[in-house]
Design brief:
637 residues; alpha+beta; Heat Shock Protein 90; Rossmann fold; 9-stranded mixed sheet; 6-stranded mixed sheet; 21 helices; elongated; HATPase_dom; chaperone
Length: 637
């Protein structure tokens, strides 16, 4: 080994990456310090493992730590560790080249990408975090000695395409990286990285839970004006998720929750879990006690924090939690991921998908346990987050059964208390095959709907669904516990028993004959508005109602799709008439007596319009409806 200074060129692709780094591909330059601290932490982990495996390795592991040193005059920042260190060959291999397959493809994508954040994600695929130092540095100096070796190595570069390397003596075991900082430039997000407050902020944000102490000498001035220097530990090293739950008290959990969620209230529920086997991880999750203001905002925060070996990687990791559980807060610490893993890679990672499945099942089983053991807490949870959870019924088929179990819905049984589907089924009448429901904009509108009349008269319970998401999931799910979910505003309704049907059949047959010609004529007159006019078995007091076919899209869902900019065809519905109502029987008499056809046509329009309004629908021509109604009222005076 030569003791002289040797100048080498970077591998061609590494040189191109350096240039890209210098031109601010990373929008957040603070990550350079995260990378250096993470590398130092890894070196300490490796030394501890090596000392356990190789009993002949003569190393001192009594005070393993990371030290950050600042020289404000020289504008340098040094990150030093007493870990495993590197040999000369290690330095050349790990720092001077990028021995990673696919680097050329990475460079091609970087050149094509016009989006800085997208470029950052691409860089994250190849573990080149050390090069981030050149975003903030004019020059970087690395000195390292591998544990068990006598001599060390010095590496230095300005990031312009070459580096120097030389052997050095009297080097302490471990690695130090000294960054000669560029001038501060706030417009380019280049901060003063010699400032104590900035270093503290970065360490607290990214490296607070690293297992090794991160120390820094800090100057203090006492009351008499004398300056003293004290060494402070910047990180808490308190990774609550890595400690057994029996060793963590409730106050610590609450404090940590407020730290990660920025919430002022205590969490509703704490979920502490560990995954072992082929992919190890720890998770500490929290169910909040109240919904955030941006729960339904498109730009709202999503997901939990992701750590890798106690190093903070990203906030709001959407890949770990489905959107319908976006309110869950906490951290997931994975052991086997790259520190630079990107959001794009996370979405495709098989192990991350496996962790996500386990997390979701754990959250849902926790809610299910809450239902039976802590009903008050469950009611709080469902009041705050039920509307979001129901979104999972649309797409999460794997957990749909569990979601249906924990879903609570309003019903006509009680104005204030919600019911589960299982409780509804327990109360079903003898011979009742379907679970009845109705969707609408409000409870009052549903309860006053003509569709409800026969169900109220017969004493059938009806689910009252007023959330917009109810329109979608109820159609997608279709059944619960083998019993169909059936809208009372669709299809034919017949609530009579077999005996009642036999008794009523002669009368119904006579009604069909009596009204046949009127129904045909009304169908012709209202052909632009409805697909059919028929007699109803669901009405007791109202003259008419509008119903859909069994598989028709509801008017509310139609409006929702149009509001989202989707062009959906208008669905013609069915007009049902109450054959015992005076208005309907009077219309039939007038028609049979060959009454004024224009007047009868206007009556038909009024009948259809009233049915639309009764269910909260919109008139196609409100002005015409109002004029006809006013004329009719005037004739009665």
């Amino acid at each position: 080994m030569s003791n002289g200074v040797e100048t080498r060129e970077f591998q061609a692709e590494a040189r191109q990456l350096l240039q890209l780094m210098v031109h601010s591909i990373y929008s957040n330059k603070d990550v350079f310090l995260r990378e250096l601290v993470s590398n130092a932490s890894d070196a300490l982990d490796k030394l501890r493992l090596e000392s356990m495996v190789d009993k002949e390795l003569d190393v001192d592991t009594s005070d393993l730590h990371v030290a950050i040193e600042v020289d404000k005059e020289q504008r340098t920042l040094t990150v030093r560790d007493n870990g495993i260190g590197m040999s000369r060959d290690d330095v050349v291999t790990l720092i001077g080249t990028i021995a990673k397959s696919g680097t050329a493809e990475l460079l091609r994508k970087l050149r094509e990408s016009q989006d800085a954040s997208a470029s950052q994600d691409l860089i994250g695929q190849f573990g080149v975090g050390f090069y981030a130092t050149f975003m903030v540095a004019d020059r970087v100096e690395l000195v390292s000695r591998r544990a068990g070796e006598a001599g060390g190595t010095r590496w230095e570069s300005t990031g312009e395409g070459t580096y120097t390397i030389e052997a050095v003596d009297d080097v302490p075991q471990g690695t130090s990286v000294t960054v000669h900082l560029k001038p501060e430039d706030s417009e380019d997000n280049l901060f003063d990285y010699t400032a104590d407050w900035k270093i503290r902020e970065i360490v607290k944000r990214y490296s607070d839970f690293i297992a090794w102490p991160i120390r820094m000498a800090v100057e203090r001035t006492d009351a008499e004006g004398e300056a003293t220097t004290e060494v402070q530990t910047l990180n808490s090293m308190k990774a609550l998720w890595a400690r057994p739950r029996s060793e963590v008290d409730e106050a610590e959990y609450q404090e940590f929750y407020k730290h990660v969620s920025h919430d002022w209230a205590d969490p509703l529920e704490i979920i502490h879990m560990r995954g072992e086997g082929t992919f190890e991880y720890e998770a500490l999750l929290f169910l909040p006690s109240h919904a955030p203001f941006d729960l339904f905002a498109r730009e709202g925060r999503r997901g939990v924090q992701l750590y890798v070996k106690r190093v903070f990687i990203m906030d709001d990791c959407e890949a770990l939690m489905p959107d319908y559980l976006r309110f869950v807060k906490g951290v997931v610490d994975a052991h086997d991921l790259s520190l630079n893993i990107s959001r794009e890679i996370l979405q495709q990672d098989r192990q991350i998908r496996a962790v996500r499945r386990r997390l979701v099942k754990k959250v849902l089983s926790t809610v299910r346990t809450m239902m039976t053991e802590h009903p008050d807490r469950y009611r709080t949870f469902w009041t705050e987050f039920g509307r979001a959870v129901k979104e999972g019924l649309i797409d999460d088929t794997e957990n749909r059964d569990t979601l249906l179990e924990i879903t609570s819905l309003a019903s006509t049984r009680d104005e204030t208390e919600l019911t589960t589907l299982a409780q509804y089924v327990e109360r079903m009448k003898d011979g009742q095959a379907d679970i009845y429901y109705m969707t609408g904009e409000s409870r009052a509108m549903i309860e006053n709907s003509p569709h409800m009349e026969a169900f109220r008269a017969k004493g059938y319970e009806v689910l009252v669904l007023t959330d917009p998401v109810d329109e979608v999931w109820i159609e997608r799910v279709g059944e619960f516990d083998g019993r169909p979910l059936r809208s009372i505003a669709k299809g034919q309704v017949d609530l009579d028993t077999e005996e009642e049907k036999k008794t009523a059949e002669p009368e119904r047959e006579q009604q069909r004959k009596d009204f046949e010609s009127l129904l045909t004529w009304l169908g012709e007159q209202l052909s632009e508005q409805v697909k059919e006019v028929r007699l109803s078995s669901r009405l007791t007091t109202s003259p008419a109602c509008i119903v859909g076919d069994a598989y028709d899209m509801t008017p509310t869902l139609e409006k929702m799709y149009r509001a989202m900019g989707q062009d959906v065809p208008s669905v013609k519905r069915i007009l049902e008439l109450n054959p015992t109502h005076p208005l309907v029987t009077g219309l039939r008499t007038a028609y049979e007596q060959d009454g004024d056809k224009e007047v009868l046509t206007e009556t038909a329009e009024l009948l259809h319009g009233m049915a639309l309004l009764a269910e909260g629908g919109e008139l196609s021509d409100p002005a015409r409806f109002t004029r006809i109604l006013a004329d009719r009222l005037a004739r009665t005076l």
